[in-house]
Design a protein that fits this description.
About 10% of the residues lie in helices and about 35% in strands. It is mostly beta strands. Strand 3 and strand 4 form a beta hairpin.
């Protein structure tokens, strides 16, 4: 299990891709922006971008409303 940082918190995860990580953490894959090691990961690449030991991930979930 990779040990990574998510939004500043250390955690061990079972996910091996960004998409799997987003799902593992309970985020809606359609409403989240992901940054991996200071680079934005386009949604089209979430399924093929790997999560590795030491990665620093930032997740931002969009919330609708008015």
């Amino acid at each position: 299990m990779p040990r990574i940082q998510v939004n500043g918190d250390d955690r061990s995860v079972t996910a091996t891709t960004v998409r799997a990580l987003v799902e593992e953490l309970g985020f809606d894959v359609r409403k989240v922006a992901v940054e991996r090691n200071l680079a934005i990961v386009p949604r089209s690449l979430h399924g093929e971008t790997t999560v590795a030991e030491g990665d620093r991930i930032e997740l931002v979930q969009f919330v609708g409303g008015g």
